[in-house]
Write a structure and sequence with these properties.
It is flat, with a radius of gyration of 13 Å. The protein contains 2 helices and 4 strands, in the order E-E-E-H-E-H. 32% of the residues lie in helices and 21% in strands. Strands 1-2-4-3 form a 4-stranded mixed β-sheet. By secondary structure, it is of the alpha+beta class. The chain starts with a strand and ends in a 7-residue tail after the last helix.
């Protein structure tokens, strides 16, 4: 599955592109784990399927995790990723 690492705002991210894309569509996916853990290998198949089924790119912020980075570090990273998408012209409804 394609997995492209990059940065949105201050947060690194993985971008999962589908085989075909409907213009202007993006999913900003915030994985589960309570801001404590993230196992990328558990999500890659699901995210690839999500991108393909919705014909949209999927952005997964690589936000800072607790306890090394206390609250609100992870939420700040997610908000920065969302704002960076808006700054690129992404419409919130798409």
């Amino acid at each position: 599955m394609p997995d492209r690492r990059g940065g949105i705002g201050r947060a690194a991210h993985a971008r999962i592109p589908p085989r075909s894309v409907k213009a202007g569509r993006t999913v900003l996916y915030l994985h589960g784990g309570g801001f404590l853990m993230y196992a990328r290998s558990l999500y890659t198949g699901f995210l690839s399927r999500l991108a393909t089924d919705l014909q949209t790119r999927v952005i997964v912020p690589d936000y800072r995790l607790a306890p090394e980075h206390p609250f609100p570090a992870a939420i700040d990273d997610c908000l920065h990723a969302y704002q960076a998408l808006l700054d690129t012209g992404q419409e919130p409804v798409n």
